[in-house]
TrEMBL record, chain A:
Membrane topology according to the record: Peripheral membrane protein
Record localization: Cell projection, Ruffle membrane; Cytoplasm, Perinuclear region; Endoplasmic reticulum
Main location group: membrane
GO molecular function ontology, one term from the record: protein phosphatase binding
GO biological process: negative regulation of autophagy; phosphatidylinositol dephosphorylation
PANTHER family recorded: MYOTUBULARIN-RELATED, MYOTUBULARIN-RELATED PROTEIN 9
Cellular-component GO terms for this entry: cytosol; endoplasmic reticulum; perinuclear region of cytoplasm; ruffle membrane
InterPro entries for the chain: Myotubularin (IPR030564), Myotubularin-like_Pase_dom (IPR010569), PH-GRAM_MTMR6-9 (IPR048994), PH-like_dom_sf (IPR011993), Prot-tyrosine_phosphatase-like (IPR029021)
Family membership: Belongs to the protein-tyrosine phosphatase family. Non-receptor class myotubularin subfamily.
Segments forming domain Myotubularin phosphatase: 124-499
Protein name from the UniProt record: Myotubularin-related protein 9
From TrEMBL, chain B:
Originating species: Buteo japonicus
Record protein name field: Myotubularin related protein 6
Keyword vocabulary terms for this entry: Hydrolase, Lipid metabolism
GO molecular function, one term: phosphatidylinositol-3-phosphate phosphatase activity
One Pfam assignment: PH-GRAM_MTMR6-like
Myotubularin phosphatase domain segment(s): 124-500
Gene Ontology cellular-component annotations: cytoplasm; nuclear envelope
Entry's family note: Belongs to the protein-tyrosine phosphatase family. Non-receptor class myotubularin subfamily.
GO biological process, one term: phosphatidylinositol dephosphorylation
Catalytic residues, chain numbering: 336 (phosphocysteine intermediate)
Region annotation Disordered: where it falls in the sequence: 542-570
Amino acid sequence: MEFAELIKTPRADNVVLHRPFYLAVEGTLCLTGHHLIFSSRRQDNAEELWLLHSNIDSIEKRFVGSLGTIIIKCKDLRIIQLDIPGMEECLNIASSIEALSTLDSVTLMYPFFYRPMFEIVEDGWRCFLPNEEFELLSSVTDEWRLSCINKEFSVCPSYPPVVIVPKSIDDEALRKVAMFRHGSRFPVLSYYHKKNGMVMMRSSQPLTGTNGRRCKEDEKLINATLRPGKRGYIIDTRSLNVAQQARAKGGGFEQEVHYPQWRRIHKCIERFNILQESLIKLVEACNDQSHNMDRWLSKLEASNWLTHVKEILTAACLAAQCIDREGASVLVHGTEGTDSTLQVTSLAQIILDPRCRTIRGFESLVVREWLQAGHPFQQRCAQSAYSNSKQKWEAPVFLLFLDCVWQILRQFPCSFEFNEQFLIMLFEHAYASQFGTFLGNNENERSKLKLPQKTMSLWSWVNRSEELSKFQNPLFEANSLVIWPSVAPQSLQLWEGVFLRWNRPSKFLDEAHEEMINIIKYNKELQAKVNALRRQLAQLQTVDRMQENL
Amino acid sequence: LEFILTTKQEQVKLLDRFSTSNKSLMGTLYLTATHLLFIDSSQRETWILHHHIAAVEKLPLTTSGCPLVIQCKNFRIVHFVVPRERDCHDIYNSLLQLSRTAKYEELYAFSYNPKQNESEQVKGWQLIDLAEEYKRMGVPNANWQLSDANRDYKICETYPRELYVPRTASKPIIVGSSKFRSKGRFPVLSYYHKNKEAAICRCSQPLSGFSARCLEDEHMLQAISKANPSNRYMYVMDTRPKLNAMANRAAGKGYENEDNYSNIRFQFVGIENIHVMRSSLQKLLEVSGTKGLSVNDFLSGLENSGWLRHIKAVLDAAVFLVKAIAVESASVLVHCSDGWDRTSQVCSLGALLLDSYYRTIKGFMVLIEKDWISFGHKFSDRCCQLDGDPKEISPVFTQFLESVWNLTEQFPQAFEYNEAFLLQIHEHVHSCQFGNFLGNCQKEREELKLREKTYSLWPFLLDERKKYQNPLYNADFSPELTLLEPNTVSFNFKFWRNMYHQFDRSMHPRQCVFNLIMNMSEQNKQLEEDIKELEAKIKQRNGQSSAVPVKEHQQSAHPAPVALKTPPSFQKEQPLIPVNDAVRTIEGSNTADNRYSEFVAEFSKAEPAVVSLEYGVARMTC
């Protein structure tokens, strides 16, 4: 298919662009296969807007006489309006945008066409490989092994080719366990807590069904992670009720009789359309400036967004607490083990492991616990808050995770190497990107799409010093402690950087932030200078003393 | 002292206010003449000023003892458990007596001795000079003059002696107008805007009933509008909801009839009365004090309390006032019922938005002295300084501070002062430790001889100004008389956690960027000094390299953080947000603080061995 077929009017002049808090700008609108480009084309104050079609969540058109108006709502929650003279042009442009923003073939997406204009220092596709992770692990414990059982994605389609499992469990047993777990997602290592050797594993639900099927290998596998005489916790991210209902569909949960050394805790974390609805309602509330106080608060409440944030954080804190405080190992799962499970395991690591609070460590976490672990990004992030499609598989699972990270970052602003912008950037790229990182739903699909060969990795771009400097937190000071966030409602806040980003002028806040950074920079300069002068003085003094002694 | 039935009580438990598992600290409780003191087993002190106590409640006896809950005016809530009921009863009765004062002379301010000599005391009181302030605004001038009508408080007891009025308002007009205004509070100048030549005036409601009018009052308003050469029209802002104002007519009060006054534009702005505000705050505190609160209960409680709606209403009113002056150059007369609550809020916030001087530390003190203290906001009644009518209590001033805090959040560089300054002022409005806020009006304060018998708060705050300075403040951000235009869309108003949970440290960020930046910018000044000094020394040495070197004390590579010197007596009851920490403190290493799950409680019973409850506070030096 040629993109040209979809673009009947590639260019329109005298288009007026409206954005909140900016003056309207007149200019030229161009459509390419992947971008909507608006340029004011003025010599003195050229303004350009490049918008990826894949970033467009929905579009509306209106006509007043022959003047058409297109309202474009983006996945990053921005809303812009274009006034286009000429009914035909406007209709053409609208239908092109509609078609180009909803391409159904992944290989037509921009990452397959994008040619980077920067020098690649380090190929992001080759970073964060499971082997490296395992090497780190091997240096502290020999109780685990790398299994290549899934090399051809033959055992579990949503797992990566290699996984870390207890050494005492052989591949044959793993195969049996895979049969006993939803989507074959058998328990694998998610995190090893060096401090006390406790571990966090994740899986999908066991397929116990109504007649209480059991699997000796499964029991053996997870028991293999326990210390003698110690107990473990299974954190089921569903309510007991939901977990019980799952039995009717062949799923279920670990029965006490068969797992006597494990205690099950149910923590209800919502999924799918409930989350999507929540996002839609929240964004609706944030976008309406006319709400009076009562309405705003009741809309914020009705969205339930912060309730989800609190639930997820609480479950993650609980997992971390079991590991660090109770000295117990933990297994986390929900139904498929691809959504709420990953929220919990990844947040728990941020709480427990200082490495995950560095930029590289966080990237590695996203790769391990989201991309390789098989969170279906392509399905979940197909649409954002303005979608009308209401597909069951669309859900802001990853955005919620980022929101939770932001909440912890706010409470421990010096303990993270990255800043809020880094999280916002990940949100944007998960939904629309020139990079291939978040395409596909799992490693299996990614390898079929040959993403590493055909597209650029987000990490190749981010991990260059020019880009990194934007995402570094000037206050960062490595903190080796476990950080326990407060989950009281009074401590949780609306993530303004995402949800109010386009709804209020941020000039004063930005300037204040800049000033803050200046103070920090100045402080470092002064410190350096004082130290240099002291050294100089000390040298002079030694010279003097030597002369004196002579 | 005769009230203190027991001065020391051992084996008292201090419960964590929000803990679902009844986590507690064991310690000893002391009652002194002025404070309640609790020292826990790790020697941490909790000081509570008796005047700060809003309510003491004795709960039914439990197996572990007799619970005693103390609610403070600074929103601290402490929950003690005293082993024996009789002892608890004694403490309860003592506190009841100690926290209720019948006479001003028994308030802490009259016994508080900060070791200042007499001349320092006098100088302290002279720090804020309102005559000087009016001069700064540009009055008296061709249109405005100082009136001596109220020199002996004969016309209005609750106004200050010195009042500024239009030159054309003669004494008979003033007298006539005052008789037509509730409590004699006739229209006077509150703020004069030099560039626009427009004024903010304030008064109380007219005694208009359904049809009464008063020529002098009409003249008075005309005089105000004529005093403004740029715009003959003036606004009259009634800050009450229209319904309330109409109801007042039945009692012979009410609002201005536009037909009777020439050139006025009348406007209601709908701020609720003191009773609505009191119960709103009550509801807010009930919600925020709930154990195991869910997000939705918090948000719906916040909504139902109406608190943020009221804060928005106050700020919206100020924005309206400011627009009239800044855009139309029109003068504005503001009133409510008596003109000492809502009127003070709106006039002071309006001035704060218009004039950057009030966004400085000194300027903010002046603003409070002018619009709140001198114009007779009834601090004593509103803050319940003496045992009195509970229906007079209302958080009107707290709302003013909260509105200012909201502005500092929107304009982080426009204010010289920080949140700690606002919290400290709030603390002392209720502490009765200084004379400034005692009593209801200036006349009363003079009768109490506060200037001789007590101390002024302001010099103490200025001494500690390092703690209250906003490191991001940019004086150029708002040159003089530059308008702040706040955005009052609902989502900009946030729950003020640092006010209402000031003492619930587990709820706050464990690392505070603001304090860090504050310390850093303080350290920067010190470093600049160090550099100068070092450079001078090096220069000196290079110049006299052959001379006999002076043995110098080698300094350490890292400069010591600047210690803040303050009188200890002023320090002790102010934990506030910990602004003086030069180290980054990471707290919350105890998961039980955070109440993730009730399961810990259940579990620890089954397996007490696995639950570790050490309280870890990690410290990292800067």
